[in-house]
Structures are given as structure tokens and as C-alpha cells.
């Protein structure tokens, strides 16, 4: 529902901006407001969604109109009725629909009707509570942000506790309700807004970590896997970092950058779950947004008691300083099972075309990957192979090392099967590709049909062994539908043999099949129906 994605204040602010361009004394404006209200009340507004602060929906009038209301830039509103100038009745209908989620329909009409009436010169006095609610935080005070986050977290927790049935949705609500509510209350200044939202997301991620630990300890059921919610936070933070890196950050925001460094330090060092997600965010921030403050982080780490996390943090700092050997020395004593965390650096170096450094890390990681794949207890072997091979193949493309890539692909079999198969096709090594399919025991040829058709065009002879095996698999099933499928494959084989001018080989093959399975009368009948053998056989 919209109230989970948008705030009451935003609706009223958008309404005030629209109303500021209208006048109750102008007939056309009165008609637009009345028509918009009627369209909403008649249920002609539907398919309403919110994307990146843009409210979008369809309004059914004489014809369906698509309407967009950018809540923070309402003057850029759009409707494909293409009314020239001002806000059309369709935009107003969508505004009423959004306002109805908070019971604001009457309030919006009231503000329009009283727009031109004189107001009291003496402002209405506010209570202390109202003043506190107005000044939720100081925009330029980082500590005020954190205090605001804490107050909102406390209020959110109390609200969730009122309704026990909400507990199963608590983890996802930390993102959907708690974090998004904080983001809606961000300052309006662009860079400041993104910094505030980034810190709100980091704080929200911290709340998720705490809640996930509590759920695990108390055996509370959650409809959403904590890792799924965590991935949403990671994606959000990644996007916000990109936005902040797109332009300069004013020097008067340095204390906020420093505060962000302390917050991500706490996220990484004070929790014990979701290490890959925490380490990704830690590296992402210190590699880009916080890079100029790296000395502060080194000082923080120096004050910590020894822990398993320090080598990881110091290794990344060494990586930033281009001290790869130091970083590798720090990680040598670390369990090889953590190798999936190191592949991030290879991707970074390849993206920056720093290939010599990438080669160093590929060699280091390769040894660890081999140890993991040889470990019977290591889970997700296929996923690890995929991660490493993606990084290696990107590197190999840069240096045009096809031979080296093929060696690595062979070494990591069977976990590299899909990547090796694709590599062979790209290199047009079709007969080796066929041998790989046979060796891996890939299931029926139907699953490869689209690839087989492409291979047939290039090297018809390469696919013959696949059809031979497919025929035998069908016969071994010993039922009539399978025999019919075998006949179809045999017809395809006959065509290939004839085009290859190997009719004698075909004759020998079909005679062998007929003689070997002479007791399977149903098969013999299907062979005759398919005119692969005659009655004499």
C-alpha cells in the first residue's frame, strides 16, 4: 500500500504546490478540481505505483491516461492527455488517490477552497510536543542524524511489538518501513540528502543484523530470509555510493564523511553474521567514498583487540595502498574457505585495467579455490568456481590468453562445466565440446537442441556421437513413446550420414541396432513404421 512507501507530509507538500498554481475564483480551476475528485470517487484511478519518488498511475476518463507526479519536482508532472499548461484533472485525480491513503481528500479540497482567503497575521502557537516533532534533527549535524535514527528505531520497535502477527514480517519491514521512512525525511539539498540516506541505510542494515541474531536465538519464524533483506540494503547502499561519487562533495560535509567511516567500522567489527555482505560494504566505502579518510580507519583498527576481522580490514587497506604482497601475507594464515571474499579485488583491478596486480591475486586465489574444491565439506563449490572463473575469464580477455584460460577451465572440472562448454563453442572446438558433453553425461539431447542446431551448421560430424547416445538412452527406457523418440533421432542420424556421404556407416549402424535389439518387438515395429528397416529385416 502507498502509506508504506510515501509520507503524509510529501502528499500535502505536493498538493500545496499544485494548489499554489490554482485559484478557487477561476472557473477552469474549480472544474479541474471537481472533475479530478469525481474521477477518484468513481474508482477510475488504478495501477498506482511509486518509483524513485515518482507517483505513477492510470486514470480512466474518455480514454485511459498515464499520469506521473514527481513528488519532489511536481512542476515536472506529466499526463498523456497533453493538456497545455497547468495541472489537468487526471493529475488531480491521482493526487486525491494518493491522499486517500492518509485520509487527506477533504484536507486537500479545504486547502484549495480557502486558498485566497485572508489568514491570521498572528501565527498559531504550537505546543512543546509539536515543536519537537517539527525539528526532528539538525540537517548539518551528523550526531543529530544518529540521535534521530535511534529515536525512530525505538518508535518502530514499539509499533511492531503492539501487533504480534507482524513479527514474521519484522525483518523486511526494517527495509520497507523503517529505512524508507528515514529516507523520506532526508534533507532536500542533493549531496546532503544522499549522505543522510546512505547513513540511514547503514543504520537500517545494522538494525537488520541485530534483529536477525535475535530471531535466530529465539527461534522466531520470518517470512523473509534475512539474507534476502540484506541484499536489498547492499544494493541500495551500492547505488547511493555511486550517486555520491558522481560529483564533488563540499568540504563543509567532511565531518559527515568521517561519521560515515565510524558507522561502517561499527557495522563491520561489532557484528558476527553476514560477513560477505558486511565486508563488501566495508570495502566499497573505503575504496571510494571514504578513501581520503583511510588514515582515520587505520587508527581505529590499531585500538582494537586482536580478532579474526582485523586481517581482513588491514588487507583491504593494504590493497588500497597498492601493497598487494602485504595484503596476501595477512590473508595467508586465514582459512582458505574465505577465498570467495578475495575475488572482489580481482574484479576491481580488471575494471581499472591493472592487470599485473590482478594476475597476482588470481594466482593467490587459484590455490585457495583448488583447496576448497578438494574439501568434501565445503558447500557451494559450483558457486565458488563460477565466481573465480568469471574473474579469470575477464582477465584472460584483456590479455588474450585463450590457452591459459582453457587450462584453468579443464583444471576446475567438473565445476567449470558450463563455462568450459561455452568457451569451446566460442572457440569453435565443436568435437571437444561433444566429448565434454559425453564425459559429463549430459542428459538427453533435447536439452541441447538449440546448440546442436548451431553446431550442425559448422561441423555436422561433431554431433553424431550425441545422437548415437540419445538413441541408446531411448531404447534403454523400454517403452513405446521412447522407441518413437529413438526413431526420430535415427532419422536425423540418417540425414547426417547421407550428407556426409557415409551411407555405408549408416547401414552398419542401423543393422547393429536391429540385430542387438531383435527381441524388442515394439522397437522393431517402430523401426518399420519409420521406414528405417524393411519387413525382410
UniProtKB/TrEMBL annotation:
Annotated keywords: Metal-binding, Zinc, Zinc-finger
Kindly provide the name given to this protein in its UniProt entry. SWIM zinc finger domain-containing protein
Q: Where in the numbering of this chain does the SWIM-type domain appear?
A: 65-99
**Species of origin:** Ectobacillus antri
Record InterPro entries: Znf_SWIM (IPR007527)
Q: Which domain of life is it from?
A: Bacteria
Q: Which PROSITE patterns match?
A: ZF_SWIM
